[in-house]
Structures are given as structure tokens and as C-alpha cells.
Amino acid sequence: MAREWLGLPVFVKPSRAGSSIGITKVTDWAQFPEAVATAAAVDPKVIVEASVPGREIECGVLAGAGGGLPEASLPAEIRLRPGVDWYDFSAKYLDDSVDFDVPAELTPEQTAAVQEASVRAYQAMDCQGLARVDFFLGTAPTARSAWSSTR
Q: Boundaries of each D-alanine--D-alanine ligase C-terminal domain copy (predicted)?
């Protein structure tokens, strides 16, 4: 049932690793057990996320000085260059395969919504220091979301 609900592709990732370590893009359910094992080798809590077509937006959040409220940066858009399948570790750190639009081309209302949601996520997760919050601005509404499990 979850397979039909999530569809393909899905991303299988460790819950607490960051920077695309241990993440697999699954395009065939036969790849799923190995993808779960890869993620679980990094963190026993594994997340499975449905792919969301559309624009990838990121927003930095910095703790407030002297314990003040955190502040969000202007959002940026991550654009993959042609031939790059997804924003994996190599695309992030090793290859020259992405472009960034800073600030992202968003309406003032979208910018404010991303910043507000970023600060709320930062506070809800009890983050400290600096965090990056990622968003997918979908091209169409979707009823799919993430499913997580502890192994």
C-alpha cells in the first residue's frame, strides 16, 4: 500500500546524517532493501520520501544574537545543470553541476512564507547556531509525503 501511495522515485535516507550521506534515489522497488540498508548503516532511523517535482528552495536560519529570535536569510534556488539527475553528495560538493539563484525568484509573499516556515522549523527542531531548511516548490499539488520508520 505504501508503495502505491508514495510512487516512484523515492529517496531513502538516514534521519540524522545531512549532506546526502547515505541517501539513495530508488527508481525500482527491487533497489529498496539495499537502499534501506545503506541508510540504516548511517542512522537506525530511516526516512522514505516521495519525489516532489518542482523547484528546490533553501533558506538559512541563524540563531539570534544573545538568545534573541532566529533570523532567516533570503531564500536561494538550487538549479541542477542538464544531465544531473539529483542533488546528491557529488552534485553538492565534488562536481560543478549546480547553479544557485540568490535570492530565488519568488514573489514577496512566497519569500515571506519560506522565511517564516524556516524559522518555525528551526524552533520546532530546537536547532542551535546555523541551519539550512529545504523546500520543494512543487509544480502540482501532491497528496504524497514522507514515511519514516525506525529499524
A: 3-138
Confidence at residue 143, expressed as pLDDT on a 0 to 100 scale: 44
Q: Does pTM surpass 0.70? A: yes
Quick one: which of 54, 62, 35, 48 has its CA closest to 3? Answer: 48
What is the C-alpha to C-alpha distance for residues 63 and 41, in angstroms, rounded to an integer? 31
**Residue bearing cell 504524497:** 144
CATH assignment, 2-150: 3.30.470.20
Which of 112, 21, 121 is CA-nearest to residue 75? 112
Domain borders along the chain are 2-150
Nearest to 147 by CA among 61, 36, 60: 36
In the prediction, which pLDDT does 146 show? 43
